[in-house]
């Protein structure tokens, strides 16, 4: 079985505390399963291998968590 971790937030752009709060759970997990942070309209970021994804784009493309 394949697993993925998913965190969903409306936005992470309020302040650095909000951003850190949303990424923190992923950063404590030390396995190799994919980690996705889904937000509504935030600029896409890259952080520690966590895949930051725009929810509307993700859904419109019919993508899946892999």
Summarize the structure.
This protein is α/β, with parallel strands linked by helices. 27% of the residues lie in helices and 24% in strands.
If you had to describe this structure to a student in words, what would you say it looks like?
The chain is of the alpha/beta class and 66 residues long. It is 27% helix and 24% strand. It has a 4-stranded mixed sheet.
Total count of helical runs of at least 4 residues = 2
Structural class: alpha/beta
Distance from first to last alpha carbon: 11 Å
Radius of gyration: 12 Å
Strand elements, count: 4
- Give the proportion of residues in helices: 25-40%
Task: Give me the oligomer status.
Answer: single chain
As laid out across the biggest beta sheet, the strand order is: 1-2-4-3
Give the CA-based shape. flat
Mean pLDDT: 91
Strand content: 15-25%
Largest sheet: 4 strands, mixed
Uncertain runs are none
Main attributes?
66 residues, single chain, four-stranded mixed sheet
Strands, helices and their partners?
Blueprint: E1 5-8, H1 16-27, E2 35-39, E3 46-47, E4 50-54, H2 55-60
Parallel strand pairs: 1-2, 2-4
Antiparallel strand pairs: 3-4
């Amino acid at each position: 079985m394949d697993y993925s971790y998913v965190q969903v937030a409306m936005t992470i752009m309020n302040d650095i505390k909000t951003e850190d709060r949303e990424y923190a759970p992923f950063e404590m997990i030390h396995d190799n399963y994919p980690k996705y942070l889904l937000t509504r309209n935030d600029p896409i970021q890259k952080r520690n291998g966590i895949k930051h994804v725009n929810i509307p784009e993700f859904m419109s493309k019919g993508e899946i968590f892999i």
